[in-house]
Amino acid sequence: MASETLTASGYIHHHLTNLTFGHLAGGHWAFANSAEQAKEMGFWAFNVDMLGWSLFLALFFFFLFRSVAKRATSGVPGGLQNFIEWLVEFVDSSVRGSFSGKNDLIAPLALTVFVWVFLMNFMDLLPVDWLPMTAEQFGKHALGMDPLHVFFRVVPSADPNITFGLALGVFWLMLYYSVKIKGIGGFLAELAFQPFGKFGLPFNLILEGISLISKPISLSLRLFGNMYAGETIFILIALMYSAGWLLGSFGGLLQIGWAIFHILIILLQAFIFMTLTIVYLDMAHQHH
């Protein structure tokens, strides 16, 4: 596709553009035909591809674990059950090591965050053209669309809307448990009177406010930045296949090497997101 219908820059731009549905200037709702048109749709436009894959992976996670749980046996476990049990024990150990309070929600939440983020990250290991080209052919033959106007990204965690959504969910839980455990007065007192006491109230509010707001921002941008960079590198390597057999062969070696290295990245980013979620909720359960 890179050599037949698009320039190199167009290929990159096409692969980094979302399938966006929103309100057009003409007054009706439709899919955007370009990144510029998607931008004009404003805040209430929906990245359908990212939302669709996020939901699909969430359902895959749910039904996989549910199936294993229903077929679990106290005897010798099968390979999949053994892996799921190991994963649950790993997350449980992480919660026990980082969370000092008592809350039955934290371990299931940590497991959900870790597996869901990992599955979203894992989509980055799929060949960059497989699913987008399938979507293009569907749009061309089933919907009569121009393939150049069929955008289809498949890595939800490379979309800041998805990572900010996850981080804001964690942030809401932080605020909820901070108020529930400490009371509204205790929570506001921490913001107003720490660390310099009541005489440093303006400075306390600035420092604690920045610290509070930075948590969801750093949580979301860290995941987004790493996955977006990984996706872009895979796209750049894919361009080498259209530059002759020599560069194509070298690109194949680069792709294998980067994929092996990227396995560590997708695992690490899922683990970091889970660990910070546990730590932030632990801080919400603690009095200063």
Mean pLDDT: 89
Along the chain, the helix and strand elements come as HEEHEHHHHHHH
Number of domains: 1
> Helix tally?
9
How many DSSP E strands? 3
How large, in whole angstroms, is the Cα Rg? Answer: 23 Å
Helical residues, percent: 55-70%
- Low-confidence runs of at least 5 consecutive residues: none
Strand order of the largest sheet: 2-1-3
Biggest sheet, open or closed, and with what strands and sense? 3 strands, antiparallel
Global geometry: globular
Share of residues in strands: under 5%
Structural class by helix and strand composition = mainly alpha
Can you put this structure into words, describing what you see?
Helix content is 69%, strand content 3%. It has 288 residues and is mainly alpha-helical. It has one domain. A three-stranded antiparallel sheet has the order 2-1-3. Strand 1 (20-23) and strand 2 form a beta hairpin. It is globular, with a radius of gyration of 23 Å. The mean pLDDT is 89.
What key attributes describe this structure?
3-stranded antiparallel beta sheet, mainly alpha, globular
Describe the protein's topology:
Elements: H1 8-15, E1 20-23, E2 29-31, H2 35-40, E3 46-47, H3 48-70, H4 79-98, H5 106-122, H6 130-141, H7 160-193, H8 201-239, H9 245-285
Antiparallel strand pairs: 1-2, 1-3
Helix pairs in contact: 1-8, 3-5, 4-5, 5-9, 7-8, 7-9, 8-9
